[in-house]
Each structure stands twice: as C-alpha cells, then as structure tokens.
Amino acid sequence: MQTLSRLTASALVSLAFLSASPAFAEAPSEDPAAEFWAPERSFPRWIGLSVRGGYLMPGGRMDASEPPIYLYEVYKGLFSAILEPTLRLGSHVELGPWVQLSYVQMRLQCSANEECPGSNLRYGFQANYHWHMANRYSPWAGLSVGYEKTSFSLPDVEATYSGLDLTLQAGFDRNLIGPFWAGLFLSGTVGKYGTLKLEGPSVSGEGSIRERTVHVWIGFGFRLRVAAPLVADKR
User: Per-residue pLDDT tens for 86-104?
Assistant: First the structure.
C-alpha cells in the first residue's frame, strides 16, 4: 500500500505540473509532419490520392482443366499502375476504392516470333492501418478485396477469365514536405477465377468454372501520395 500511495502521489504531482505549464504542454514539435497534422489530432479526417507503380509476378493454375493451364505459362508478369483515392478516419484507418491498369508481359506464343496479346484489369476496395502518423515515417498494412479480369488471345479464340481475389499488402510512407509522401510496398494476392468467356469464329460463350483453382500475384513497387486534412466547420 505504501508503494501504491507513492506512485499515486507521483502521478498527481506530474499531472499538476503538466496542467500548470502551458509552455511545456504546447511546445512546438520539431517534426514538420507532426506540425502539418497537429490541427486535426483529436479526430483527424483527410482525403488522399495515391498512385502506385509496381511489378506483379504470377503463380498457380487458371482452372482445373486437363492439360492444366498455369498462370505463369501465359504471363511473364504485369507492369501495373494503381490509382487509389482514400479517406482517413482517425489517426490510423485508411479506406477507399482502387483500380489497377497493367501492361502485360506475355509468355504465351502465337507463333515462333510473335507473342499472343493479353490484358489485365483489377479493381476493388481496401482498408489499411497506419502507425506513427505524427512522425515523418508511416508504416502501414492492410487488406484489399478485388475483382480481376484477365484475357489472352490465340489465333482462333480469345479467352477471358474473371473472379474475386484477396490481397494482403504492407509498406511505408515517408513525408517529403507538407502533404506529399512517398514510399515502397509489397503485396500478395490470392484468387480463384470463377467465370470463363470464349469468343471466336467457331466458338462463343460464357459460363461458370466448376472446378476452380488458386492462383497468386506477388507484387512490389513504390507509392506516391498527396493528402490534405478535412478541416471541420467551426461555425
């Protein structure tokens, strides 16, 4: 009990000292990022726009057909650009939609000297959690739910696979100046194609894939972001 009383007394003295010393409590931060976000520290809300550039590597099967079609046999990889408008709620949670456009590196050959054309489009919604928002560095991690449409063309038919996927992602942002941030990221996507559409002179149709298999995309790259606090109306 004596030790508890001493701790309680010490805590009360410290609280009284902080309350009676406005110069100490309101000392300006030397961190530019902390000063930038200081007006909204109680419950900051801000909007941001991010652009990611990266490379995605494929793995897994596209479906359970025989002979099997592996994703890495069709694509070497994707050079991707991701556009992300986001809304920050509180100091840590970031929400928003995203869309990914890709330049496709094809492995599938339509002839000895010609690669088959292909395309890939993904979009969805993400939720990320940021740490140390008031500091110059802000590591983050999150979860994204998306929908993918990927296609490739053979001489006599075009095949389009589509389905839902789930992405785990993490990275860090560094404050450059004011509202401008830049950083790196890693991502891992797991999905299953649920629909196959075929178009060609001799075959045309769309249907559900009965035996679905898992495919993956492993990605890495950089992220550029500009963000601005939403200032509450005080009238």
Answer: 998 877 899 999 999 999 9
H/E/C letters for each residue in the chain? Answer: CHHHHHHHHHHHHHHHHHHCCHHHHCCCCCCHHHHHHHHHCCCCEEEEEEEEEEEEEEEEECCCCCCCCEHHHHEEEEEEEEEEEEEEECCCEEEEEEEEEEEEEECCEEECCEECCEEEEEEEEEEEEECCCCCCEEEEEEEEEEEEEEEEECCCCEEEEEEEEEEEEEEEEEEEECCEEEEEEEEEEEEECCEEEEECCCCEEEEECCCCCEEEEEEEEEEEEEEEECCCCCC
- Separation of alpha carbons 33 and 175, rounded Å: 7
Structural fold of domain 29-229:
Porin (2.40.160)
Q: How far apart are CA 144 and CA 99, in angstroms?
A: 11
CB 221 within 8 A of CB 78: no
Assigned token pair, 142: 């999150």
User: How far is 73 from 134, CA to CA, in rounded Å?
Assistant: 46
Summarize pLDDT for 21-45 with one digit per residue, the tens.
444 344 444 554 554 444 444 446 7
